[in-house]
Every structure is written in C-alpha cells, then in structure tokens.
C-alpha cells in the first residue's frame, strides 16, 4: 500500500498588504523588498479570523478534490505555529467543523517544515493501514509579527493549504520523506515569550518578545545549504537525478535562496513552483498552497515527479519525493 495525495486545497484571506502599504509602516521600500526577497504582496487575515478558519476552507477544498467525505477521515494533522489557542489543538476545532466524527486530531509544530513533517507522519500511518489522513498547513503569521520590525514584518503572510493522503495500490504516491533538525540553531528564528520559558507579562509584551525574532542573514546561508543537502539525499536514496524532477515545490521564503539552491543543484528555474511574490512566507502553509496552485494550473499531472523542500525554525529541514 502506498500513500497518495488524492486531493489538494488552499485558501488565503482576501485582504492584500502590498510593499507600498508597508512603506507607510516601516522604513522600507517596494524596490528593496522585491530585490532582496522577491515578495510583492502578502495576504493578511481579517480581525477575528484565526488559524482554524483558514484551515477549514483549505480542507473543504482538498476533501472535494479527493472525493473523500469528512466522516471517512481517520486522522487530521494540522501543522502550525499560530494556532487559535495555546490549548486545545487547533486540529480539534477543524475536526469538529468539518464533521470528521471518526478522526483523531492533533497539531504538529515544526515551523515552516510543518507540512512536510506532517506529510511524513501521514505517509507512515497510511502505509500501515489508515485509509485517509488530512494534512493541513495553516498560519496567521500576522498575529505574531512585530509590525515595527522591518527585518521580519515584510517577509510573512497568512494562508492555509491542505492535502488528503489516501492508501492506494500501485507505484504512484509518496516515494520517500526525509526529516532533519538542529536545535543548536534554535535562536536564529524564534518567538521568545509566551511559552513556559518566558510566560507572557506586561514587560515581555512591551518588549515585543511575543513576536518573531530572526537573524535573517545567518538563516539565509544555512537555508541554502540545508535545501541543497536534503534534495541531494532525497534523489540519491531513490536512485534518481535532478533531471528526473518535473517540479520542485519549495518553501516560499525568499527568491534569492531558491535561485541559489537551483544553481547549486543544476535545476532550471522553470522547474520551480514560485508564488512567494503574491503570498510572502506563509510558514507551514507555503508548500501546500504552492502545491495546490501547481495542481490547479496543470503543472503537476499524473505521473509527474514532484519534490518538496522545506527549512525553518528549530532549525528543521525536510523533503518529500512524490510520484503523482
Ligand atoms: N527594508 C529596507 N532595509 C532593510 C530591511 C527592509 N525591510 N530589512 C533590513 N534592512 C537593512 C538592514 O538593516 C541592513 O542595513 P545596514 O546594512 O545599514 O545594517 C541591510 O538592509 C542589509 O541587511 P541584511 O539583513 O544583511 O540583508 P539581507 O540581504 O540578508 O536580506 C533578508 C534580509 C531578511 C531579506 C534575508 O536575510 C532573508 O530573507 N533571510 C532568510 C530569512 C528567512 O527565510 N526566514 C524564514 C525562514 S523559514
């Protein structure tokens, strides 16, 4: 039995925040943001719109595309670092709203790698007997940004993507997944306060310690190295080469990171799915949104060899190889 992605879906809130809008908020410019990141605009959730609201929309679309009923789901895995509440898991809220009455539900925390990590868990469960697992990446990054910090607030956006993973016979499906971590680099991207180390207080909120802090330049360098390394490992373990890849669907953080990785791997840019210009970095949602757009645009067809590649806070990095 193989685990196959039988349907995808995505949702981004309608409100668009352009680089020009950001010029009015911090000392930055449209030109600087486009040149250094490739991002032109991002989506921002409405006031009161939370992670589960976005997740449900993406999930409903994925279930429709897969032709799977919510009642038939065995498990819902929601990758996020911006859940509705610290407790309970946002996946439970999604389970209830979808009417997935038989499904177990839990969140998975692996930052921007969350979707690929969750896909790997789904793959393992489906190959050992589960029939249908719903994997979602959903983020409201706007809720954890310091909107006065130009180093971070220009990079991120809100959105959700989902995939139904089902057990099927045959050669198509998830061929392999590869997961890595290095907690020695946990300070490169972090939200320092709001957990048990530094609980929320007036002081930490005043200091914006409950918002994303990032060492962008160092992150950039390790990201390039990690994405290249894990892509090579993934191909080697399947006895395939870069030429075999039909579409690379990477985490959408920065166009310069992806150009550097493409150059190192010898992968033409046309084989990379890019939509970061319209969404920015949506953390765990970025890969499933890009995957869904690639499917709907016809860039992924039955038989296509698709590689996913992610890196993020933790640090974590991950990949998956899929015969569609
Ligand atoms: N607008 C204008 N100037 C800015 C700016 C902004 N939004 N943000 C930073 N700068 C300035 C810096 O203050 C610095 O000025 P200085 O030289 O006077 O000190 C200068 O631009 C260069 O900063 P630096 O951080 O070296 O730029 P960079 O080329 O590394 O680009 C990032 C910054 C954040 C775009 C880039 O490092 C990056 O994308 N890193 C990876 C981040 C990432 O992907 N994180 C998510 C991981 S999941």
TrEMBL record:
Keyword Cell division appears in the UniProt entry: no
Where is this gene product found?
Answer: Cytoplasm
Q: SUPFAM superfamilies, from UniProt?
A: Thiolase-like
The record's principal subcellular location, in a coarse class, is cytoplasm
Beta-ketoacyl-[acyl-carrier-protein] synthase III C-terminal domain residues = 235-324
Which residue positions are annotated as catalytic?
Answer: 112, 251, 281
What is the main EC category here?
transferase
Role: Catalyzes the condensation reaction of fatty acid synthesis by the addition to an acyl acceptor of two carbons from malonyl-ACP. Catalyzes the first condensation reaction which initiates fatty acid synthesis and may therefore play a role in governing the total rate of fatty acid production. Possesses both acetoacetyl-ACP synthase and acetyl transacylase activities. Its substrate specificity determines the biosynthesis of branched-chain and/or straight-chain of fatty acids.
- The name under which this protein is listed is Beta-ketoacyl-[acyl-carrier-protein] synthase III
Q: Which organism is it from?
A: Nitrospira japonica
Q: What is the lineage of its organism?
A: Bacteria, Pseudomonadati, Nitrospirota, Nitrospiria, Nitrospirales
């Amino acid at each position: 039995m193989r685990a196959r992605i039988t349907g995808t879906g995505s949702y981004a809130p309608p409100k668009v925040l352009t680089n020009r809008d950001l010029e009015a908020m911090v000392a930055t410019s449209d030109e600087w943001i486009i040149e250094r990141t490739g991002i032109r605009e991002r989506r921002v959730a409405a006031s009161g719109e939370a992670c589960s609201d976005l997740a449900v929309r993406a999930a409903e679309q994925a279930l429709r595309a897969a032709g799977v009923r919510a009642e038939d789901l065995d498990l819902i895995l929601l990758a996020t670092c911006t859940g509705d509440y610290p407790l309970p898991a946002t996946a439970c809220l999604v389970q209830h709203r979808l009417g997935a009455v038989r499904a177990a539900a839990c969140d998975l925390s692996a930052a921007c790698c969350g979707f690929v990590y969750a896909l790997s868990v789904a793959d393992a469960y489906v190959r050992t007997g589960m029939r249908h697992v719903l994997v979602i990446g959903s983020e409201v990054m706007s809720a954890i940004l310091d909107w006065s910090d130009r180093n971070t607030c220009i990079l991120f956006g809100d959105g959700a993507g989902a995939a139904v993973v089902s057990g099927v016979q045959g050669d198509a499906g998830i061929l392999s997944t590869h997961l890595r971590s290095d907690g020695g680099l946990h300070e490169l991207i972090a939200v320092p306060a709001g957990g048990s180390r530094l609980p929320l207080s007036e002081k930490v909120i005043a200091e914006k310690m409950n918002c994303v802090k990032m060492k962008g330049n160092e992150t950039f360098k390790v990201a390039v190295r990690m994405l290249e390394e894990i892509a090579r490992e993934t191909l080697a373990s399947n006895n395939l080469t870069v030429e075999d890849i039909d579409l690379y669907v990477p985490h959408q953080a920065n166009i310069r990171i992806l150009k550097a990785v493409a150059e190192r791997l010898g992968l033409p840019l046309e084989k990379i799915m890019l939509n970061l210009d319209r969404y920015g970095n949506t953390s765990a949602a970025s890969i499933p949104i890009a995957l869904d757009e690639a499917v709907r645009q016809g860039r992924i067809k039955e038989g296509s060899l698709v590689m996913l590649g992610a890196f993020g806070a933790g640090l974590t990095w991950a990949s998956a190889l899929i015969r569609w």
